[in-house]
Amino acid sequence: MDRRPWLLAAIGLVGGVVSGLIGVGGGIIMIPLMVGWLGMSQHRAHGTSLAIIVPTALAATIRYAAANPIDWSVVGALAAASVVFAAVGARLTAHIDPTMLRRLFGLLLLVTALRMLVSIQDASLLQLDGGERLIAAVIVGVVTGLVSGTMGVGGGIVMVPAMVILMGIEQVVAQGISLAVIVPTALSGAVQHLRMGQVDVRRAVTISAGGVLGGLAGAQTALLLPGPALRAVFALFVLYSSQRMLGVQAWLAQRRQTAREP
């Protein structure tokens, strides 16, 4: 039995709140905490995170669905395309410069965040319905899968802004759809990691308890926020993610080290 169950639950709670609040998996928060606070290896933290995301995202999805009907045809199109092309993206990593790829994706995130902040009242470029929306969902799912497979990031950070900007879906609705897609996607990845022995099942149970509570709390908060405020919160998260991809923190640390040298 882990001697610090409160710490495990706290990691899940923080990740769950982020997941429910902005419609992402929460791995970008939980993985560094599990590595830094619990001493997990990077691979084991990734696998354990996926296992935790399944109940966390499911709880948040249920709360979103209770407030706003979810378009399950869009969920299906996004999920099918992203799951298939995530495998393709994973294979492409052997043929792509990972540093350059991270920087390009970081720039894309930066532009996306600025677009959402500048057009805070209405960030959409297109308004799609019916068949057009399903076709767009398949295209977004393809891109999401490729990015997720090559970069190792959750799909929500790609899906949500794509649905808001390119498909004209409201922020809160897009976040609910994103979470619904994340559930089967994370489940597929978690099963694979479990087979490879890269899931700490005992700790995942305790962390998931905090994750479910955090997911419900985050989703409830998102439902109470007005659209522009929720978009701003999401955009700030994307900005945070973009600077991590661009290596801004490492660059600043290097500059500080250079300045201290005689």
Q: Fraction of residues in helices?
A: over 70%
> How many alpha or pi helices?
11
Into which percentage range does the β-strand content fall?
under 5%
How would you sum up the major sheet? none
What number is the mean pLDDT? 86
- Please provide the count of β strands: 0
- pLDDT below 50 for ≥5 consecutive residues: which ranges? none
Distance between the termini: 49 Å
Oligomerization status of the protein chains:
single chain
Classify the secondary structure makeup into a structural class.
mainly alpha
Give the radius of gyration.
18 Å
Query: What is the molecular shape?
Result: globular
In total, the number of domains comes to 1
Tell me the series of helices and strands, N- to C-terminal: HHHHHHHHHHH
Task: Give the gist of this structure.
With 262 residues, the chain is an all-alpha fold. Helix content is 81%, strand content 0%. The chain has one domain (5-260).
Describe what this molecule looks like in 3D.
- The structure is a single chain.
- The chain is mostly helical and 262 residues long.
- The protein has one domain (5-260).
- It has 11 helices and no strands.
- The protein has helices at residues 5-22, 27-38, 42-67, 72-92, 98-118, 130-151, 156-166, 171-195, 201-224, 227-246, 248-260.
- The model has no long low-confidence stretch (mean pLDDT 86).
